[in-house]
Amino acid sequence: MRRRRLGSSGLRVSRLGLGTFTWGTLIDEETCRDLLVAYVEAGGSLLDTAHAYGVGTAERMLGSLIGDVVAREDVTICTKAGITRRGEARVEDTSRGALLDQLDQSLRHLGTDHLDLWLVHLWDDDTSLDETMSALEYAVSSGRTRYVGVSNYSGWQSARAFSLLESARIPLVANEIEYSLVRRDPEDEVVPAARSLGFGLLPWSPLGGGVLTGKYRSGVPSGSRATLSQYRASFADYLTERNLTIADAVCTAAAGLGVTPTEVALAWVRDRPGVTAPIVGAKTPPQLRAALASEDLDLPTALVEALEEVSD
Questions:
Q1: At what angle do helices 190-197 and 155-166 cross, to 10 degrees?
Q2: Which of 170, 179, 194, 199 could link 203 by a cystine bridge, Cβ 3.0 to 4.6 Å?
Q3: How far apart are CA 176 and CA 208, in angstroms?
Q4: Active site residue 53
Q5: Closest listed residue to residue 77, CA positions, set 120, 20, 117, 33
Q6: How confident is the model at residue 216 (pLDDT cuts 50, 70, 90)?
Q7: For residue 109, what is the enclosing H or E element?
Q8: Given 53, 147, 179, 216, which residue is catalytic?
């Protein structure tokens, strides 16, 4: 798998990242192991997780496999902080204390003394950005992480965070955002900011919640996340007439090229301006194999333009 620099930083990662959102919750240890083995054998290096994923469960699962399945020095570990749970309640807190507490927990979960990339998981109106960025600055200066960035920040929020870190001579190298053919909002502000300031984009949900694979064209299949109570409400935003029309176009394009819809959707977002690596959250080895196959696909210009038109 080819690698790219993360924005203008010196950090190089594979063009496809492996997400762990469902590790230890919806998928078991054996499956996680199989996914990691297949991903690394294909040349993948970017492993994405978060303190909030299963409240540390995903990090612990990943940590148990690193050193066994893959050497620590062969992968780039990215995790995020700012979200946790207290009982059934979701807590969003990007204060310095909360972030650094979660950072230390993440290092213990992952069984490492440093991260390669640490991100603030979300924007927090209740905490000053100066305080939030001070936690990132300390994480770098103390050796707990090599690089820092943000997640789910708008264009102006990214620019402000960038300027605060720049004053401390620490680069903001990444913004992990939702970006796909059915979610093109980042093109208004975030993409121009990334290209101007030099941070890389890591698209999450690049398959539009699975809609772009075509599996929802004939209804909701049993066993999909859309059938689970904890995800049903959020999936309603994906299963719209517009998005299903886009999925039809992706499937038609895939058939014409002799590839899968997954390959087409991933290749499209992978090669958008400012993007470094989409993050795929495969739950099974066959799903991961379909995603990995996108590495060999370069979409024809006419097809890219047609997909942009139908998804505009």
A1: 20
A2: 179
A3: 15
A4: yes
A5: 117
A6: confident
A7: helix 96-110
A8: 53
What contacts 284, CB < 8 A, 6 or more positions away?
Answer: 27, 31
How many other C-beta atoms are found inside a 10 Å radius of the C-beta of residue 233? Answer: 8
181, 246 contact by CB (below 8 A) = yes
- Pull the structure tokens for residue 22: 């469902």
CA 301 to chain centre: 26
For 14-35, letters b (16+ CB in 10 Å) and e give: bbbbbbbbbbbeebeeebbeeb
User: What is the DSSP secondary structure assignment for residue 68, as one 8-state letter?
Assistant: T
Q: Is 272 strand, coil or helix?
A: coil
How far apart are alpha carbons 130 and 164 in whole angstroms?
7
Q: Are 19 and 204 in contact (CB under 8 A)?
A: yes
Least confident among 160-164, 221-225, 296-300? 221-225
Hey, which bits of 87-124 come out as E strands? 89-92, 115-120
Q: Give 130's Cβ-side CA count (13 Å radius).
A: 1
Identify the CA nearest to 11 among candidates 115, 116, 151: 116
* Chain position carrying tokens 């992480």: 145
69 close to 39: Cβ distance less than 8 angstroms: no
Which structure tokens are listed for 110? 């992952």
pLDDT computed for residue 282 by the predictor? 95
pLDDT of residue 233: 59
Please report, as a single letter, which amino acid is at residue 297. Answer: L
